[in-house]
Amino acid sequence: MSHKSQRHLKTSLLSAALIAAGIGFTGAVQATETLRFAHVYETSEPFHRWAEWAAGEIEERTEGRYRISVHPASSLGNEQDINEALGLGTVDIIYTGTQFAGRYYGPMGIAGAPYMFRDFDHWQAYAESDLFQEIAEGFQDATNNVPIALNYYGERHVTSNEPINTPEDMQRLRIRVPGAPLYMMFPRAAGANPTPIAFDETYLALQQGVVDAQENPLPAIRAMAFHEVQDYINLTGHVTDSLVTIVSGIRWNQLSEEDQEIFREVLQEAAQNNTNDILQAEAELAAWFEEQGNTINEVDREPFRDVTVPYHLGDDADWDEETYERLQALGQ
What we know:
The chain is an alpha/beta fold. The chain has helices at residues 3-20, 25-30, 46-61, 79-88, 98-101, 120-127, 130-143, 185-189, 202-207, 218-223, 249-252, 257-291, 302-308, 321-329; strands at residues 33-38, 66-71, 93-97, 146-160, 174-177, 193-196, 213-216, 232-247, 295-297.
């Protein structure tokens, strides 16, 4: 046998062995797909930590069929950017505020409206309810993207350099809010001037006096060091806020039913872990901020609630009265 024939025989035998092993030349290259999980939160926050955990779990449970790279801190764009990327399929998974999701399907935003929830237990009842599942299905029908779970983001509070005790104290206050319309409902109800600014630009805006105040949960205030440029943390608790984990419909429809179930289970478990971590942080952070020299201002929330609730079914509400009443009835 010639050398050329021997080489051809060896190549054929190797190919046959790979095919018998279930590998194949094409399969070896395409065995693992890399997905992108984007969010705007810092690496120090639970949301990033549990996104990294979810990435590892999905890779393990799918036996390496999917590897997920996590992109924190607006590295793939701000919240609006990553929502748009999700629809284009250039990002596969995101965390986003329900208010941003509500721009694509109005009822999803109801969970982000100010004073919509009585307390955390009311929020939890909604997160586990048939109502949320129905709204998630409506979002999927409208956008093709798939909401998987709600993550507790925390109660949002106003920070400022002057104490805020009543809605009158917020008159004409220039307050930074995220760039989704529902975030403006509470400041407008209280007579303030809401100013949309990207999350990662807020510290500088406060430092330079572009705005007088901002509002976020305690863990986010610490993570973004807003307490360094604001003296007072006024515990208005005006939004019991959520992030929704969403998978691109383009990616979701490429997954087998088995892999869809793995993604759902892992991302829901990550959401529960985020929720637990935020609850623990909220319980501990007031004392920590006081140690840093900030003033924690306990306020009577009822006057703030009273001026805001009339807006729940006003012009900015992208949900119907039936949905609103069903949400209010949860947990009672």
